[in-house]
């Protein structure tokens, strides 16, 4: 297989992986399909140029990086069109960390999306237990019943193991560690 053909396949794959999530984000935030196409293309070009110039450092998945770059490009265009006001905290973080316009990792972090990503990483059963415990504030007895666990102690042990798993995922991921370090929740 020749290099241009391989590059083309990689780019097509990335388009397919990121398209729906970035398109949904842009449309939800007053954009349209044509704008989404432009933003996706621009985001992939930013990533591609960084790879070609050997300036890309993987701190998250490639698709996550492209999605984040796309969101930043979208916000930048909205700001230039005076549709949104720049967030002073985000601007300060950019200067404090020494980021340039092309370093998009920490900008406009969607807290809901971040939590969803983390919960997907822990697996279905842990996700269910953590949601029931933390967000729904169910008792251990209710969690045991809804998850077909023997008793409350088994539910507590399972929750504890899920939290440990979540901590390991965060500690093993430079992306999650970096974002959570700078994120004010």
Structure description:
It is a single chain. The protein has two domains: 3-97, no CATH class; 111-182, Orthogonal Bundle (Arc Repressor Mutant, subunit A). By secondary structure, it is mainly alpha-helical. It contains nine helices and no strands. It is 74% helix and 0% strand. Mean pLDDT is 76; it is low at 93-109. The longest helix has 26 residues, at 3-28.
Keywords:
9 helices, 74% helix, 2 domains, 0% strand, 185 residues, Arc Repressor Mutant, subunit A, single chain, mainly alpha
Topology:
Layout: H1 3-28, H2 33-52, H3 62-80, H4 88-97, H5 111-122, H6 124-135, H7 140-146, H8 152-172, H9 174-182
Q: How far is the N terminus from the C terminus?
A: 48 Å
Average pLDDT rating:
76
Ranges where pLDDT stays below 50 over 5 or more residues in a row are: 93-109
Report helical residue fraction.
over 70%
Care to give the gist of this entry?
The chain is an all-alpha fold. It folds into two domains: 3-97, no CATH class; 111-182, Arc Repressor Mutant, subunit A (Orthogonal Bundle), CATH 1.10.10. It contains nine helices and no strands.
């Amino acid at each position: 297989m020749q290099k241009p053909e391989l590059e083309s396949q990689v780019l097509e794959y990335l388009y397919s992986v990121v398209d729906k999530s970035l398109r949904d984000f842009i449309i939800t935030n007053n954009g349209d399909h044509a704008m989404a196409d432009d933003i996706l293309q621009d985001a992939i070009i930013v990533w591609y140029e960084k790879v070609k110039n050997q300036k890309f450092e993987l701190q998250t998945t490639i698709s996550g990086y492209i999605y984040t770059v796309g969101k930043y490009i979208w916000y930048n265009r909205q700001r230039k069109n005076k549709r949104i006001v720049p967030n002073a905290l985000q601007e300060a973080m950019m200067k404090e960390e020494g980021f340039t316009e092309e370093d998009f990792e920490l900008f406009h972090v969607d807290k809901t999306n971040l939590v969803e990503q983390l919960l997907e990483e822990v697996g279905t059963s842990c996700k269910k237990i953590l949601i029931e415990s933390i967000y729904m504030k169910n008792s251990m007895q209710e969690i045991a019943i809804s998850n077909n666990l023997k008793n409350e102690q088994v539910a507590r042990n399972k929750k504890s193991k899920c939290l440990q798993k979540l901590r390991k995922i965060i500690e093993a991921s430079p992306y999650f560690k970096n974002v959570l370090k700078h994120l004010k929740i």
